[in-house]
Specification:
This protein has helices spanning 13-17, 46-51, 70-75, 88-103, 106-114, 139-150, 174-179, 200-204, 223-232, 272-291; strands at 2-5, 22-24, 35-38, 57-60, 79-82, 131-135, 154-158, 169-170, 183-186, 211-214, 237-240, 261-263. With 296 residues, the protein is α/β, with parallel strands linked by helices. Strand 1, helix 1 (13-17) and strand 2 (22-24) form a beta-alpha-beta unit.
Length: 296
């Protein structure tokens, strides 16, 4: 078996996977690979998949699978899976860090101090007693909810595919979720249903000028509408780790021209601990398929 590691994983992974066969990061050998490991950088389009003549398994290290043409994988007899559990803690902590830093104005204070300014008159706010709306309630937002409850926040969640929520109150519509929210944290996959779901119409339903945080998928936000909302004050602050096109380009993405934003380069899942968890979930997936006789 040849395992191709196409993107960045933990450095210990090749040795672990060598138990199953040869492991390489030489992408020119894609036609020989039985298993291909990707994260978000590699785009598994039809053209890419056609090059992988021997491939039987593609594993996406992480949650979102919009970089893989899963329908075409089915047609080609390729199993395409992700590692849904591994990234929950890392991304949840990152989303919560955005929330804490915004409430406590950490970026503002840091910038002021480095400029020689003593901005003591600028007041912070607390998360305690505030309302957090979670859009999506999968593994990651469930962990955000745990942390929010520990901080004494009121937690709402909207997810039409979830029937019960232990640490959040499920609401039936997006509009109800965002209406009175102080913070909105987005954890949605990118699908036709969620394309630009955070748009001018939804923003208009917000009554509190909330902070909006997106650590899910960039294309779920209408960035032009968000930029307008930031400038008008309809949204007080926007925190983003993901963008409609990555990396975002100055002059093309209007979010980069806004002042009241905190931005990061799609690193929510990039903790050292998470890379180890992803590697273990990759190992377990391959091991299970070998035991079932689906890989040799």
């Amino acid at each position: 078996m040849l395992i191709l590691i196409s993107d960045a994983f933990d450095k210990s992974l090749p040795d672990k996977l060598s138990l199953f066969g040869e492991v390489t990061d030489d992408t020119s050998r894609i036609s020989e690979a039985d298993v291909i490991l990707v994260r978000s950088k590699t785009k598994c389009t039809k053209e890419y998949i056609d090059q992988a003549a021997s491939c039987r398994l593609i594993i996406r290290g992480g949650v979102g699978m919009d970089n893989i043409d899963r329908e075409y994988c089915k047609q080609k007899g390729i199993t395409a899976v992700n590692t849904p559990r591994s990234s929950a803690i890392a991304v949840a902590e990152f989303a919560f860090a955005f929330m804490l830093s915004t409430a406590s104005k950490i970026c503002f204070y840091d910038s002021a101090m480095k400029k020689g300014e003593w901005a003591k008159k600028t007041k912070r706010s607390e998360l305690y007693g505030k309302t957090l709306a979670l859009l999506g309630y999968g593994n990651i937002p469930k962990q955000v909810a745990v942390r929010a409850k520990a901080f004494g926040m009121n937690v709402l969640a909207y997810d039409p595919y979830v029937k019960e929520a232990e640490n959040a109150v499920l609401v039936p519509t997006l509009e109800e979720a965002v209406k009175n929210a102080d913070y909105i944290s987005m954890h949605l996959p990118y699908t036709a249903e969620t394309d630009k779901i955070m748009n001018a119409s939804l923003i208009e339903k917000m009554e509190k000028s909330p902070v909006v945080i997106n650590t899910g998928r960039g294309k779920t936000v209408d960035e032009a509408a968000m930029a307008q909302a930031l400038k008008s004050g309809k949204v007080s602050w926007f925190c983003a780790d993901v963008y409609s096109s990555e990396p975002p380009v100055k002059g093309e993405n209007p979010i980069l021209d806004c002042e009241n934003v905190t931005l990061s380069p799609h690193v929510g899942a990039n903790s050292n601990e998470n890379l180890l968890r992803i590697g273990q979930e990759v190992y377990d997936t391959i091991d299970a398929m070998v035991r079932e006789g689906k890989l040799k």
